[in-house]
Inverse folding.
């Protein structure tokens, strides 16, 4: 692998990693506040991309308006998921909640396939497709959008969590739900907000990635899994760590496929992420068990 | 007095009637047209009951049972078709190899709990699915393998649905009875103790990790046997039978059956199979959407499982009937 190729793989790794980061952020926020792993997390990425395309293509809205509407609708679906499916089953066991969110993801995927068809679609690029030259590698302008939006979104989220009253309440609920309740924080409201934030993050990722990677009704499951890997690399506690986890996963995947040695061919790209997942879970098993005990 | 004695015999009476019905099902004049469906219910029940032991009794989740089911199926397919080995030997080899594989995996992952265990087993399941799909020199790739020979005993070949019905249900009932005995034994009590509190179980001298791995291996062997029966029944295997959704289906079957109930496994499996293979097909392309919706509704309203919920309703109704009868 030449230096140019290395940079090229690095760039594509960071681009993919940005999406994993946004999904991983969603997992982290919901898990921190509610102790629920939301298996429908990847579907918000699908919804963002598909809805932006449908609104632009079928309804003829301007691209920017389509994207914003898609993010709003995706966010609303996230709120509905919490209010209609998760909240009524709050006292359910871990397994029940897993099945409920899996049911939700099957439901959303099915609806998307039924409403918008099963073909992959591509919304237009935000700002053309004239690639930039950077350290011997080509960067697609849409890739810059993806990385830029991820960084800006992460910063806004960080400011929200550290500078606003609501963000601080959310963090309090994540650190200790009972204590947060005692000082008057509405923890059920915080759970709703965590789902809304996670859905919005997923939909944002879906909107910016769709023009570059294409999107279809069934991309959610794998992206959800990759996002979970990102969150697990980050340890499920800190949003920034989840973002870094996303970048790490993207780069590892991209370089492993780039080396194209032995079993590391593109057919096994998804296996790499899963092996990273198993490795991270096993390495952290002691700490994760302790955290789960503490709640 | 008389009445009390009759009531004590009720479970046996019901068991005999049910067994008789089970034997009669594949005959044309009874429910012959459902023989094929019933064969799949039998095969799936074997996988479900393994998860019931693991999840219902021991409290350890697995979202990757399809991996073991698939390993059994592919061992049978590859050994008997490609290498011409006797199907029974292929089945046995598959079960032993899958059990050994589960032992190694179990040894590694049972340090994890709850959500993390769920994700680790899910990851394992998807890795196996991708391997089934990509190792095409052995497995035939995405299209799978056809022409897997049926099982036979001393010249008697199980070459029709009617014959395989009895074969599959023989295995299924054997596994159910074995599991029933395990649950009622010292091991079963140890498993329930682990479910209740690992720390308490440990302090009573139960080797928690060892029991977890044992049950995991057992569930894997059940699934592997079921996979082998599946391969020799259908004569064709492809990766699409062993997806993440197949693993989810097993969990749903176990949960609908009430988790900690060996016989509920049949109920849960039959409910899901009949629902997704017969009833939901009426809805055409909407079947998967309605499946997702039902999944959520059943979990929200009967989190302890449909089987347990129905049984509670039935007992309450009987109680009310009994009270009404004596005039209190």
């Amino acid at each position: 692998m030449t230096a140019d190729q290395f940079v090229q793989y690095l760039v594509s790794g960071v681009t993919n990693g940005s999406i994993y980061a946004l999904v991983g952020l969603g997992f982290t926020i919901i898990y921190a506040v509610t102790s629920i792993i939301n298996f429908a997390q990847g579907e918000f990425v699908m919804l963002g991309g598909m809805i932006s395309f449908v609104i632009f293509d079928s309804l003829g809205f301007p691209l920017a308006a389509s994207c914003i509407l898609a993010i709003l609708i995706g966010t609303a679906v996230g709120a509905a998921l919490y209010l209609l499916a998760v909240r009524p089953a709050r006292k359910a066991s871990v397994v029940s909640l897993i099945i409920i969110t899996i049911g939700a993801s099957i439901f959303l995927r099915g609806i998307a396939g039924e409403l918008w068809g099963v073909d992959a679609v591509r919304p237009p690029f935000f700002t053309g497709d004239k690639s930039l030259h950077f350290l011997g590698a080509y960067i697609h302008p849409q890739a810059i959008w993806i990385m830029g939006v991820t960084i800006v979104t992460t910063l806004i989220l960080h400011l929200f969590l550290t500078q606003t009253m609501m963000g601080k309440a959310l963090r309090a609920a994540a650190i200790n739900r009972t204590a947060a309740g005692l000082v008057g924080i509405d923890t059920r409201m915080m759970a709703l907000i965590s789902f809304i934030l996670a859905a919005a993050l997923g939909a944002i990722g879906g909107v910016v990635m769709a023009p570059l990677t294409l999107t279809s009704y069934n991309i959610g499951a794998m992206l959800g899994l990759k996002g979970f890997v990102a969150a697990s690399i980050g340890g499920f506690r800190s949003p920034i760590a989840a973002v870094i986890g996303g970048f790490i996963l993207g780069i590892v995947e991209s370089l492993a496929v780039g080396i194209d040695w032995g079993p590391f061919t593109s057919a096994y790209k998804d296996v790499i992420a899963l092996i990273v997942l198993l490795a991270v879970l096993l390495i952290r098993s002691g700490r994760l068990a302790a955290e789960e005990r503490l709640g | 007095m008389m009445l009390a004695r009759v009531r004590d015999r009720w479970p046996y009476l019901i068991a005999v009637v049910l067994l008789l019905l089970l034997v009669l099902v594949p005959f044309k004049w009874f429910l012959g047209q459902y023989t094929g469906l019933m064969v799949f219910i039998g095969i799936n029940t074997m996988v479900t009951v393994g998860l019931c032991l693991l999840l219902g009794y021991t409290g350890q989740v697995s979202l990757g049972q399809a991996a073991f089911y698939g390993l059994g199926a592919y061992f049978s397919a590859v050994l008997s078709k490609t290498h011409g080995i006797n199907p029974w030997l292929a089945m046995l080899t598959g079960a032993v190899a899958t059990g050994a594989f589960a032992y190694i995996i179990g040894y590694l992952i049972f340090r994890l709990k709850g959500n993390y265990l769920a994700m680790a087993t899910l990851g394992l399941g998807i890795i196996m699915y991708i391997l089934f799909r990509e190792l095409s020199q052995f497995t035939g790739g995405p299209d799978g393998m056809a022409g897997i020979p049926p099982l036979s005993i001393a010249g008697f070949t199980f070459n029709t649905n009617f014959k395989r019905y009895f074969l599959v249900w023989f295995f299924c009932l054997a596994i159910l009875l074995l599991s029933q005995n395990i649950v009622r034994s010292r091991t079963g009590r140890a498993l329930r103790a682990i479910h209740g509190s690992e720390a308490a179980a440990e302090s009573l001298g139960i080797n928690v990790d060892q029991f977890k791995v044992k049950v995991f291996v057992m569930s894997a062997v059940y699934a592997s046997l079921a996979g082998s029966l599946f391969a020799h029944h259908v004569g064709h295997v492809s990766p699409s039978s062993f997806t993440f959704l197949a693993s989810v289906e097993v969990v749903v079957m176990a949960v609908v059956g009430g988790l900690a109930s060996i016989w509920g496994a049949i109920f849960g499996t039959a409910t899901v199979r009949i629902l997704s293979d017969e009833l939901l097909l009426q809805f055409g392309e909407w079947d998967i959407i309605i499946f997702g919706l039902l999944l959520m509704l059943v979990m929200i309203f009967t989190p302890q499982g449909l089987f347990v919920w129905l049984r509670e309703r039935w007992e309450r109704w009987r109680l009310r009937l009994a009270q009404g009868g004596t005039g209190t």
Chain B has 14 helices and four strands. The first strand of chain B starts at residue 145 and ends at 146. Strands of chain B lie at 145-146, 152-153, 156-157, 236-237.
